[in-house]
Write a structure and sequence with these properties.
The structure is a single chain. The chain is mostly beta strands and 145 residues long. It has no helices and ten strands. The strands form three sheets. Strands 3-10-5-8 form a four-stranded antiparallel sheet, with no helix packed on it.
Amino acid sequence: MDYPVLNQAPDIVQGVVPGYLDGDGKFVPASAANPNPVTGTVTVTTSGYPPLKVAASQTDYTLQTSVGALGDRIESITIRPVTTSPGAVSIKDGGGTAITLFTGGASSVGDLSPRPIYLNWVSIVGAWTMTTGANVEVLVSGDFS
């Protein structure tokens, strides 16, 4: 390629630098120590129903507000270990085959932080049932009959 100035490529680098303009109109590059400011409104949408609490050591606990039925929807669950050796958590659609959502076991977690799982599942057989092992409880959000 032929360059008109001293037969050398120009000292220009093209690229995009993330950042923002501060209150004085000066450009401020974004970094981990100086992230872009968040503006506007953040909206969180949930099912609008209070979560159901399933205690530890439950077998085929029916997820319901009155009867539980076909068409009930599980939006999400939050697994809350009580010890670092929590039991398993499984779920069934209308008494069908159990689906393990959390295996648990001896020293299976390093801390007691909640573990959210987003499902958005709709029952196609009947009421959802949940089984929890020892030392683990679950909060379930969704639309249950």
